[in-house]
Amino acid sequence: MQHTKNLEKILTGMSRADKAQLLQWVARDLGDAFPGIESNPQVCGGEPCIVRTRIPVWLLAQARRLGTSEADLLRAYPTLRAEDLANAWAYERSHRKEIDTQIRANEEA
């Protein structure tokens, strides 16, 4: 109950845009749904990719871990949007072990 009261205080100080962003995050977290990310056995071996592309989430995650900025990723992959990166990062947070395994497998290949 104390957490709820603390959150209520925090929410009253947030902008509408921040609240909307928080609500989207909570909805994704509760539903384990990641809009903009799809896994199709006929695309990249079923690895989760950004929709409309064949760019695997693990590739973006590894690039970021190696220090590539979001701006550089958007320049390197013109079909990507900032929203795609936000979706990829959310997917990575929720599926860290899966992404780590995919990175290792592709490094060994």
What's this entry about, in short?
The chain is mostly helical and 109 residues long. It has helices at 2-12, 16-31, 57-65, 70-76, 82-94, 96-108, and strands at 37-38, 49-50.
Annotated CATH architecture of the largest domain: Orthogonal Bundle
Principal-axes geometry comes out as elongated
Query: Radius of gyration over alpha carbons?
Result: 16 Å
Output mean pLDDT: 89
What pattern of helices and strands is seen along the backbone?
HHEEHHHH
Could you give the order of strands across the largest sheet?
1-2
Q: Tell me the β content.
A: under 5%
Q: Compute the separation of the termini in Å.
A: 50 Å
Name the structural class.
mainly alpha
CATH superfamily grouping of the largest domain: Winged helix-like DNA-binding domain superfamily/Winged helix DNA-binding domain
Q: Domain count, please report it.
A: 2
Q: What fold name goes in the CATH topology slot of the largest domain?
A: Arc Repressor Mutant, subunit A
Oligomer: single chain
Helix content: 55-70%
Give the number of DSSP strands. Answer: 2
Note poorly predicted spans: none
Look at the structure and give the CATH class of the largest domain. Mainly Alpha
